[in-house]
Amino acid sequence: MGGPQGTQSSGSSLDETARFAARIRGMVGAVERGDGAGVRACFAEKGVYHDVFYGVFKGDGIISLINDYFWRDATDFRWDVHDPVAAGGIGYARYVFSYRPTFEGAGGGRAIFEGVAICRMRDGLIDEYREVARESVALAAMDFAPERIAKYLSKQNRELRSRTEAVRHLD
């Protein structure tokens, strides 16, 4: 796993980055082990996990995301974190994520994609986890039909257009 890259402007940013890096790496390690409670422990009491495939999970629902969805549909998870950085209560980290899909209709071999985790932090815990990912690469690796990938991408397009950050871009 990669470490922080570049120079930070202050010692407090370095400390914040180190704390964030430890927390996000703890979270992905728990995912790899299939430890839903371990993932949940990385989140604040009312923490929220926005997953690109499965949607939004809150609080103890995060345990279900890992145990009942991730590990139902795949095995042999690998999640590497690169270049974590944090400042002002927000942490970012690039990642490469892969797994072996087990659900019906998933052909091909190991599914792999890259992304960026965006975390709002509270008292050293993740308050909100969101990601921007190239998940369509994983869908192609699982030999999904082009129509199925197009349907998924259309859904992603609708979701982005419904967010307040997108309003200025909708003319």
- Mean pLDDT over the residues: 91
Residue ranges: pLDDT <50 for 5 or more in a row?
1-10
Main sheet overview: 6 strands, mixed
Q: Number of helical runs?
A: 5
Task: Assign a percent range to the helix content.
Answer: 25-40%
Give the termini separation: 42 Å
- Please provide the count of β strands: 6
Strand order of the largest sheet: 2-1-6-5-4-3
Shape: globular
**Rg for CA atoms:** 17 Å
Q: How do the SSEs run, as a string of H and E?
A: HHEEHEEEEHH
By secondary-structure content and strand pairing, the structural class works out as alpha+beta
Structure description:
- 37% of the residues lie in helices and 35% in strands.
- The longest helix has 23 residues, at 11-33.
- A hairpin with a 2-residue loop joins strand 5 and strand 6 (125-133).
- Strands 2-1-6-5-4-3 form a 6-stranded mixed β-sheet, with helices on both faces.
- By secondary structure, it is of the alpha+beta class.
What key attributes describe this structure?
single chain, 171 residues, alpha+beta
Secondary structure elements and their pairing?
Layout: H1 11-33, H2 36-40, E1 43-51, E2 55-58, H3 61-73, E3 74-87, E4 90-101, E5 111-122, E6 125-133, H4 135-141, H5 146-161
Parallel strand pairs: 1-6
Antiparallel strand pairs: 1-2, 3-4, 4-5, 5-6
